[in-house]
Write a structure and sequence with these properties.
This is DNA polymerase III subunit chi. With about 170 residues, the protein is an alpha/beta fold. The chain is built from 3 helices and 8 strands, in the order E-H-E-H-E-E-E-H-E-E-E.
Length: about 170
């Protein structure tokens, strides 16, 4: 399958603030997700974050340390894998998957205050556009929501920019 890939340009909040909100939306849609990060230590950090990010809510998730990967609705990993048969992949810390076509959607989140991360995302956009993936670029609004700013290789072949999105 050819995934729809969203580039999420973090400008107003950190990954630690945005990730739980995005994962809540994944769960609300009834989907499963894999979150891929740059190291085992980063996975341990994100694991702890998802237990404590919102005192009144809980984001069900697991890691290799927990076992039973196939039972986890959200699976955190530093490996390029899909052990919970997820349809959604979230990439953090500049990691890239070689298994994009195993997913329906991919969200790549990058820090807009890190020039190297911005440049790496531009390189990925060009590469993935050349491979024919359906790409959408989202920029954070002042309220922390997301606004669609550009699209490439849309199903009708259009390349557009400046489309409004919801907060």
């Amino acid at each position: 399958m050819t995934p729809r890939i969203g580039f999420y340009h973090l400008q107003k909040t950190s990954l630690e603030q945005a990730l739980p909100k995005l994962l809540e939306k994944v769960l609300q849609s009834g989907q499963r997700a894999v979150v891929m990060a740059g190291s085992v230590e980063r996975i341990a950090f994100l694991d702890q974050l998802l237990w404590t990010s919102e005192p009144e809510s809980w984001i069900p998730h697991g890691t290799a340390r927990d076992g039973e990967a196939s039972l986890q609705p959200i699976y955190l990993t530093a490996e390029d894998e899909n052990p919970n048969n997820a349809k959604i992949l979230l990439l953090t810390d500049g990691v890239v998957s070689t298994h994009l076509t195993d997913f329906e959607r991919c969200l790549t989140l990058f820090d807009g205050n890190d020039e190297a991360a911005v440049q790496a995302s531009r390189v990925l956009w060009k590469e993935w556009k050349g491979l024919g993936f359906d790409l959408t670029y989202y920029q954070q609004t002042d309220r922390g929501g997301w606004q669609e700013k550009a699209r490439a290789n849309a199903p009708d072949g259009a390349v557009v920019g400046g489309a409004a999105g919801a907060d």
